[in-house]
Amino acid sequence: MMTNIGGIEATLTLNENDLAITPSAREKLAGLIADADDEITAIRIFVSGGGCSGMNYGMTFADQPSVLDSSMEGEGGLKVVVDPVAQAYLKGAEIDFVDDGLNASFVFNNVFQAVGGSGACGGCGGG
């Protein structure tokens, strides 16, 4: 299925089995896009790093999604894009937004299940 994001045709559509976004996270992300500059069309979910400390999961604004990105659209103008490498590490993950009054942040849940690891260090010596 083709999805148009900012004039770019994305060929893959993400669904809740690929990446779940809680209602509180959807609301916050949609608000961030609405408050961003006009050239911002989506939120990019990315994965970086590795090794004993695990992968780093994050988000940034996207002004030009790639034709290789998978995309998800939601209520309130929410558009999310994920590149093919990050999608492999995010399969089955959930993004939540938690605000306990003192701290507010996005939380990535169930990310380790995507890579099938045990949670133990493999002994790379970086200890």
Low-confidence stretches: 117-123
Rg, alpha carbons: 15 Å
**Beta-strand level of the residues, as a percent range?**
35-45%
What's the helix-strand series?
Answer: EEEEHEEEEHEE
Please give the count of helices.
Answer: 2
Please identify the structural class as seen in this structure.
alpha/beta
| Largest sheet properties | 5 strands, mixed
Averaged pLDDT = 79
CATH superfamily: HesB-like domain
Total domains, how many?
A: 1
Write the CATH fold name: Hypothetical Protein Aq_1857, Chain: A
Shape: globular
Compute the number of strand runs. 10
CATH architecture classification name: Sandwich
State the distance separating the first and last CA atoms: 45 Å
Q: Which percent bin holds the helix content?
A: 10-25%
- CATH top level class name: Mainly Beta
The spatial strand order of the largest sheet comes to 3-7-8-5-6
